[in-house]
Amino acid sequence: MRLIRVEEKGKIDLIPLGDSHAGSIDFDRPKFERTVKWIKQNKDVRVVLMGDLIDAGLKDSVGGGTFDNDTTPEAQINYIIDTLMPIKKQLWCLLTGNHEERVRQRTSIDVSKLIAKALGVQYAGPSCFIKAKIGKINYVIYALHGSSGSLTPSGKLNNVLKAGQYTNSDLTLMGHVHELMNHTTEYFRVDIGNKQIIQDKRHYVLTGHFLKYGGYAQHKNMAPGKSGVAKIRLDNKKKDVHISL
Question: Is the pTM higher than 0.70?
Answer without folding.
Answer: yes
